[in-house]
Design a protein that fits this description.
The longest helix has about 130 residues. The protein has 12 helices and 4 strands. The protein is elongated, with a radius of gyration of 45 Å. α6 crosses α7. It is mainly α and about 475 residues long. The strands form 2 sheets. A two-stranded antiparallel ribbon has the order 1-2. It has a two-stranded antiparallel sheet with strand order 3-4.
Length: about 475
């Protein structure tokens, strides 16, 4: 924008402020942006005659605000058209590093900033379109999810950063056109944030909102956690829309197709490598799970055998305790001489009772361990089934990718064959040209001989026509 600043004037505080404002807003007041086919044309206002056709009838053609609105509308048309065409040619989901998508957000940011009213705060003057975007939540309740997500994003400290994040989320949800139409239709609410001659208050804003409908065919996946949306400087790159006459459109289209095919081939090969690695990892996990399953099955069999043994010991202890009880009843009828034997029997009975209690406790512990092992076995079987299903799906995807890779290789081979044919045709044409040049040389030589013979014949005829002396 420094090229648009007059060179013959000395800088003053007022001109410095104007220059700074022009650099921040990037509005072309001294130039007019027009669309010529698919290209952007910049013309000075002094070199063209403004007609009232593109502007409304009630506006002054020389009004700089109207010119700014028209420039921004044309830039939005070019940005949206270029983004849709490049995205469809690319044929995949767009990310944050895609240059046409970044330029689209810059253009939309300048459209929303046009004609904003300045709000004075303790830190100075503040101009942000976040307040206007918050109106969408009041007019459309389903937009409250986007507003809540923007407020919950970490690292956003300024209203400008929140407005940029809102634009990206609305584009990912394919609701940007609907939300823009909603707030443009309520100019009574927008008048709180915009001047009467702002882009959002005039018919250019409705035109841009209609153009945004075409972006619903684009799939975007934008990650905003690592981006510094607060301090980004939005500069429109006009070089993306200026015409380059150095190459023909056909060659550029052919190169673009070959480049797209090679990019797709590289992408498919990289995805194929990643899938192969994931399949190998899943196969290793399945083998480890099968080994652990076998080990747990063996441990479960050992635990079952031990439980059976403990049950047999419990039955034996019960029989011995019943026998001891019967013997104790029989000993009660005996004489006092057998009291010492009875005491020993009681002591033995107490020991057997304690042993029985220990065996029952151990039996309960083994039963609990058995139940836990059965539960873990069921969970492992479920996990193995899920992993096997995922492995089958990944193998199917791998086969599909291999088929796509083969198709791309066939296309590249056909392109190579066509290029070889063209080279052969060029070589044949060169040979014909050489032959024709040789023929031309022979004709020139024969022409010289004919001219010489004609001269000889004319001289001979002159001699014959002379009268005898």
């Amino acid at each position: 924008m420094s090229d648009l600043t007059p060179q013959g004037e000395t800088p003053t505080p007022t001109t410095d402020k104007i220059t700074q404002a022009a650099r921040e807003t990037i509005y072309l007041c001294n130039f007019r942006v027009s669309v010529d086919g698919e290209w952007l044309c910049l013309r000075e206002l002094n070199d063209i005659s403004l007609t009232p056709d593109p502007e409304p009838a009630h506006e002054d053609p020389k009004d700089p605000i109207a010119i700014e609105r028209l420039n921004l509308m044309n830039m939005a048309k070019l940005s949206i058209k270029g983004l849709i065409e490049s995205a469809l040619n690319l044929g995949r989901t767009l990310d944050s590093d895609y240059a046409p998508l970044q330029q689209f957000f810059v253009v939309m940011e300048h459209c929303l900033k046009h004609g904003l009213k300045t709000k004075k705060t303790f830190l100075g003057q503040n101009k942000s379109f976040w307040g206007a975007l918050e109106l969408v939540e009041k007019l459309t309740p389903e937009a409250g999810e986007i507003t809540a997500s923007v407020k919950d994003l970490p690292g956003l400290k300024t209203p400008l950063g929140r407005g940029r994040a809102w634009l990206r989320l609305a584009l990912m949800q394919k609701k940007l056109s609907d939300y823009m139409k909603t707030i443009i239709n309520r100019k009574d609410l927008l008048s709180e944030f915009y001047e009467p001659n702002a882009l959002m208050m005039e018919e250019e804003g409705a035109v841009i909102a209609g153009l945004l409908v075409g972006l619903n065919v684009i799939d975007a996946n934008l990650c905003m956690k690592g981006e510094d949306l607060d301090s980004q400087v939005g500069v429109i790159d006009f070089s993306m829309y200026l015409k380059d006459g150095g190459h023909s459109s056909k060659s550029a289209e052919g190169d673009g197709q070959i480049t797209a095919i090679l990019d797709q081939k590289n992408y498919v090969e990289e995805l194929n490598r990643h899938l192969s690695a994931s399949v190998n990892n899943l196969q290793a996990k399945v083998d480890a799970l099968e080994k652990s399953n076998t080990k747990l099955t063996e441990e479960l069999a050992v635990a079952n055998n031990r439980i059976i043994t403990l049950q047999e010991d419990v039955e034996r202890v019960k029989e011995e305790s019943s026998y001891q009880m019967e013997s104790r009843k029989a000993l009660r009828s005996d004489s006092a001489a057998e009291g010492q034997v009875l005491g020993e029997t009681r002591k033995q009975l107490k020991e057997e009772t304690l042993l029985r209690l220990d065996v029952e406790r151990e039996l309960e512990v083994q039963i609990g361990m058995k139940q836990e092992m059965e539960l873990s076995m069921k969970m492992l079987e479920k996990d193995i089934c899920e992993k096997q299903d995922a492995l089958v799906e990944l193998r199917q995807q791998l086969e599909d990718l291999r088929a796509i890779n083969q198709q791309l290789s066939h296309k590249s081979q056909s392109a190579d064959a066509s290029s070889k044919q063209k080279n052969e045709v060029i070589a044949r044409l060169e040979e014909k040209i050489n032959q024709m040049s040789g023929t031309v040389k022979q004709l020139e030589t024969s022409e010289k001989h004919l001219v010489k013979q004609a001269r000889n014949l004319s001289s001979a005829a002159g001699k014959l026509l002379q009268p005898p002396q």
